[in-house]
Amino acid sequence: KLPVVAIIGRPNVGKSTLFNRLVGKKLALVDDRPGVTRDRREGDATLVGVDFRVIDTAGYEDEDAATLPGRMRQQTEAAVAQADVALFMIDARVGVVPLEEEISRWLRGSDTPIVLVANKAEGKAGEAGILESLALGYGDPVQLSAEHGEGMGDLFEALLPYI
Ligand code: GDP
Ligand code: MG
Fold first, then answer.
1. Which of 31, 55, 69, 141 qualifies as a cystine partner to 6, CB 3.0-4.6 A?
2. 3-state SS of the chain?
3. Ligand 1 contacts CB of residue 13 (under 6 A)
4. Percent above pLDDT 90 for the chain
5. Å from CA of 145 to ligand 1 middle
6. Is 11 annotated as a binding residue?
């Protein structure tokens, strides 16, 4: 059985971009049950010769703002519970928003190791957000640009103890 890496975080931080970069054409499984496709995708990835399964907690496209936090919590907790390690992704250019402080509280009940990932960190636009993210208490974030493929080596190093 492959080790499982879950990518969690609020909408629009770049989770699916990282998922696509990791899984690429090897997308193994898209659950087509109603309501599931949008919420979650799984695929197999290989980094530096290590194979693992990736879960993208996705979707929320048609989401009603009032029900988003509840559905997100359910999805996030389910993915984290089945993962060997979770990547908690924020947008370095935005910094930490209240919803992410809330996600952080949900994660406190879990034994799954959490790796904080500050995405969109290309250039210097992410510096303030990266400093701000230290307050979440996960230590130095992995600085990543999922879109440009920067920081993948650091991401691999951070994952390696758990996969
Ligand atoms: P998700 O909702 O967390 O799955 O986020 P997406 O992967 O759909 O990405 C949301 C937006 O952020 C898209 O417009 C992406 O192109 C953009 N994005 C993703 N990664 C990066 C990045 O590393 N840098 C920048 N500048 N934009 C990114
Ligand atoms: Mg997505």
1. 55
2. CCCEEEEECCCCCCHHHHHHHHHHHHCCECCCCCCCCCCEEEEEEEECCEEEEEEEECCCCCCCCCCHHHHHHHHHHHHHHCCCEEEEEEECCCCCCHHHHHHHHHHCCCCCCEEEEEECCCCCCCHHHHHHHHHHCCCCCEECECCCCECHHHHHHHHHHHC
3. yes
4. 71
5. 9
6. yes
Least confident of 49-58, 66-75, 102-111, 136-145: 66-75
Write down the pTM of the prediction.
Answer: 0.91
Does the annotation place 14 within a ligand binding site? Answer: yes
Domains of the chain: 4-157 (3.40.50.300)
